[in-house]
Amino acid sequence: MLARDIMTKTVVTVPPKATLAEVAKALLDARVSAVPVVDPTGRPVGVVSEWDLIGQHAPERVLRRDHWLARLAEGQPLSAEYVEVVQPNARMAEEIMTTPAITIDDDADMATIAGVLSVRKVKRVFVVKDERLVGVVSRADLARALIVRDAPTPARAPLEDVPPPPPPVAAAPAPIEAGVNAATFRRLVEAHEDAKRQARELEHQAHERARLALVKKLAGEHMNDRAWHDLLERAHAAAERGEKDFLLLRFPSALCSDGGRMINAPDPNWPTTLRGPAADVYEHWRDELKPAGFGLVARILEFPGGYPGDAGLTLTWGA
């Protein structure tokens, strides 16, 4: 099955100029935790979540989500905790949205979808056709599709030949064998732990396959001019909010030819390791922004298991 077969086709969206109250109302009405931001052509340009609205660390975020959003949507006074989290001059979706929106083509298969959800650590991925939003696939949608795909199909007998079901029989408890001792129980525990380790290893292998597939896909992609100008507009909005830098791109460090080691060192030759969209961002900065006084910082953003995970390229203009 492909993305178009399992996606939810009705997607609540907001435009880039939507106010925070409008975004909050959309979240409440649809009973969802995030909505895509879609431009007039139908192209998803970002995502706004409840975290973007009320803050990841707001003390009552989990227990009182609907209360916070309702107060925002209805224009009621907000508490000091909310004001501390949200910039007072951030009043539109495009100013607080997370970019880029994670998307897949409508003909992506389930393995590709699972890989994107796993590697990007997201709960949902938006489906596009010719760059226009056509649906969304969540983890629940994928799980349901896998259950349907893997469910055995029992042989169907003619209706008149179907025997009546046997009466239920209570299962008798298994007898404890004579001579069972603590060593037997310890072996059972060891067998259980071995099974858990094998399951973790299989999960790790699946994650690695998905990660490598994503890196291979990204290595062959390039950032078009429209995407670059979108980033510049968001950086401009960040400066208007008083910020001194902006994360232009987050990408797997494996996209670098050396796995991100030069960025982590840091080695001044790190730009030579970039590939795909990361290389395009660097070249745009070098040719267009560096002469205008902008800086570019590369750093490893996370270290899962002690190894470089995602890397980031951050545009700077502060002193």
Q: At the third CATH level, what is the topology name of the largest domain? A: CBS-domain
CATH level 4 superfamily of the largest domain: CBS-domain
Nearest-integer average pLDDT:
77
Q: Write down the secondary-structure element order.
A: HHEEHHHHEHEEHHHEHHEE
Strand order of the largest sheet: 3-4-5
Q: What is the rounded distance between the termini?
A: 52 Å
Strand content: 15-25%
Q: Specify the CATH class of the largest domain.
A: Alpha Beta
Helical stretch count?
A: 12
Structural class: alpha+beta
**Cα-atom Rg, whole angstroms?**
25 Å
Verbal overview:
The protein is an alpha+beta fold. It folds into two domains: 145 residues, CBS-domain (Roll), CATH 3.10.580; 92 residues, no CATH class. Helices cover 42% and strands 15% of the residues. The strands form three sheets. It has a three-stranded mixed beta sheet with strand order 3-4-5. The protein has a three-stranded antiparallel beta sheet with strand order 6-8-7. It has a two-stranded antiparallel ribbon with strand order 1-2. About 8% of the residues have low confidence.
